[in-house]
Amino acid sequence: CDFGRLGIQICWDMSYEDGWTELAARGADIVALASASPQTVRPAMHALRGPYYVVTSTPRDNATIFSPIGLPLAQRTTPGVLVHTVDLAYVILHWSEALEDGQSLGRHFGERIGFAYSEREDTGVFWSNDPHTTVGTMIREAGLETMEEQILRTHHLRHTDL
Known about the structure:
The protein is globular, with a radius of gyration of 17 Å. The termini are far apart. The protein has five helices and eight strands, in the order βαβαββββαββαα. By secondary structure, it is α/β, with parallel strands linked by helices.
């Protein structure tokens, strides 16, 4: 789509890991999950494992937008339409002392940076609100590394002979 890569899962597809894995491998930014089931745990897990946004919709009592860290960003449990804006140019940051649960970036960049941080999960999704500066530039300027970079670095250390 003109806004990013959209994947689609339909109802019982949510039970098959290979579909979710293939959507991640093909670079899905958002996965739309239309289902008769109002489940939240499995869609949240798939959003986290993607990582990508998962948008669910059911004819029953749930429409939810899950962030790429598996947390609900918006939810509607009554009839109606759910509208929520997401930025597909995001990074995921895991806890570090310098991050201060996202507050250090908020102080440094003010309204130029947006984020949804979970103290419970020690992880957050961060995006740029500044059309002239990417979130990646902000993260590098702050001397931080993305969760993906942390995982790659520690993976390398785990497999290096000491």
